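Quick one: structure tokens for this chain, please?
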Amino acid sequence: MAVISSHKLRLLCATALVGCAVTPVSNSARAAAAQPASQAETKKQQPNTYKGKAAQKTASTPAPTTQASSKAKSIEAASDESIVVTSSRRATSVQNATTNITAISAETIKSERLDDIKSLAALLPGVTVVNSGPNGAGTIVMRGISTSGTSTNGVFKNNAVGVYIGEVPMYLDFMLLDINRVESLQGPQGTLFGLGTLGGTIRYMPNRPNTNKYSISVHGRVFGQYHSTAPGGDEDVTINLPIWKDHIAFRSVTGYYDDPGYIDYDYVLRKPGISNPQPAGPNSFGSSAQRDENFSKHSGVNFNHTLTTRNQLMLKYNDDLKMYLTYAHQETKTDGRSATGAGVMNTGNWDGPWRYLEPVDRSGDLYSAEVYANLFHIAQFVSTTAFTHQVIDTKYDNTDLLLDLDYGYQAFPQFSSWNTSHDDYRQFNQELRLVSTHKGPFSWVVGGFYNKFNTNTVYREHVPGFSEWGVANGFGNVYRPDELEYASRVETETAERALYSEGTLHLMKGLQITGGIRYFDYDASNSGGSGLPLYQTYPDIKLSNAGGGTGSNGIVWKANASYRFNPQLMTYFTYSTGYRVGGYNRVAPCILPLNTSVQNICALSNEISYKPDTTRNIELGFRGNLFHNRFVFSIDGYHIDWLNVQVPSQTVYGAVGITTNGGRAVSNGFEFSGSLRITRQLHLTANYAYVDAHLTEGVANLVNGVANAYAGDRLPGSMKNSGSITATYILPLDNNRSVRFNWMAAYSGSIYSTVGLHDYGTRIPSYVTHRASISYRAGKWNASFFVNNTFNQRAITAVSNQSNTLNQQVTGVTERYYAESILAPRVIGAEATVNF
């Protein structure tokens, strides 16, 4: 593999926009590239241990100390293309990567105020994150591989994309604090990583403890947000503590985010079951007196209160044996959706019309142990053991769901309903991996992976006041003080085992070929039950009980070749296959024969489980640098065949959301990213992605289980066109100080909410947002003034339910079913960081 020389890398590092925290590829990069990732990172921390003669000679040369060199240093910035990444299990710069990898540096994350994956997506070509606000982790879609409609409710799972915190897979929107870089790998990943993926992988790579240097970094941010009634404030502290020099160190980061909301719930029922949800009839909340009598007002309900912490203990015997012990915790609270009712019942642009507050309380914990051991200059052994646990408690307005099912509840004038869900996710991972470190033209990786994922969901629906009214009006003969209408409990378990291997042969100068294979098998089981307590004697809650199991196995593989024509241009070609495990839907099975005279909410035998789906990815890419490294770029084109597609559907009885299989699809597209150094002070970076993802065959009842879909129908959840451009001007001052002017514009293309817009889907319009900042840097200090969403663009980011339910009536009751998530309005603020 070609390696960037020290001189060329210095030129490359002058081509960026925003200064990026990058580990340069030194003269010893050829040796580092042949080493596993963790060992290469050790070398970066302790360069004197591993340097060859050429590197030692470079290190012994004293650095210039003139004022001119200080100015040059203050304005130099490294391109994200020169970030050293480890996704190939070997350290290499992005520019030398032989597959599609995008990396975002710590400096870019800080300077652009990218707090989580939702804000990061604008810089990752081909990645769409459907943002529904703090009540969920956001739906990540890579290259259009999605059939799920958008949602304004929280999303907590996504097995089409692998999300890693270091070496541990965990789908949680961890805040981007003390992160060295974020790596995005497009296309199926299964021959280098434990977790097999269908569309790609995103890795948050944290900074590691340093055994030789004490440090502390304190950061604070204050801001005001339009349509909010209170200011916001975020703060975090990072500490690195050497305990025993060269052997033990502890690193900890803790942050708290207090972001105000901008959505108001002005029509929350004062006394559910007594207050009238529409006191003046359809499409009206009545007079001022009627509103005061029946409703209470709540401002900024979609606030984000997040506490996050990550703590690492490094135990190091020597450079050949070390361990990282990690504990991470994050909890997020909010009181409502970042959504409006699209003007239903004459509500405003920032009003949610729902009858209840909709709090979400979610927390996640990660415990992991990583061991790295070098084995006789032959291979490095890596063991990662991890346990992750998430608990999510939600409450949502359930009224419109029951009205839409048309069970006659609307006959009760004060009818309303709310639901609660308690979700408990537990995941255990064990991965063992060997990475070759010996010399020679052939390098290899071999590993084994075990993953056990358990879910436990307890769900309840309440109808306050209804049972008492029903007994008095002939709608039943059972009174329940708890007003519990429906209850269910579902437990699932999925256990996956896999063996994987990948080898690379350097055939000649500039040419290498890689092949990989993975064998997997999994078992999935389901048990649970549902019941209708409204028809049972209080306090009984009798649930039906049923369950079953499923499983499958298979092989995925990868072939890759790359060739470097010259130091300025490289090409690569990849064919890879991906898969996603099947499983059981989290809905109680039906107990046959069904009593159809009462309400049934359950899954029939063909709705219980779903099979794996697979992808076949063909990709051709180029990486290069032109005009003496002033222009650095990466471009690729791809074709993905998607087979046995997993699609969202719903049960016949109760319209509960499930996953099923149906049809074939294809995704074609291309991606571009590049950086241009116009002058020494002015830099531009840009990215663009085009995605054409659509069905290639029609399927009956594919959309929400009720509407047909046809060949050529566009898939939902991803943008067809997206891109961003960033400009940075760096004004050098004396004494290594500088002022930076930064501006970014991001284009978010339109999104379909359902396949082909069938079943009254919505085409979410495209929009452009801007952000700008001015930063002053002086030694250990950094202060910034910033404006996000500079022109206060109001945009829709997601929708829930069919558009025909907007202003729909059920026997004189106006539904508030349809919802639109709204982009956060303009934010103006200031922040500062000090490092000790």
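Confidence is low (pLDDT under 50) at residues 1-35, 38-78.
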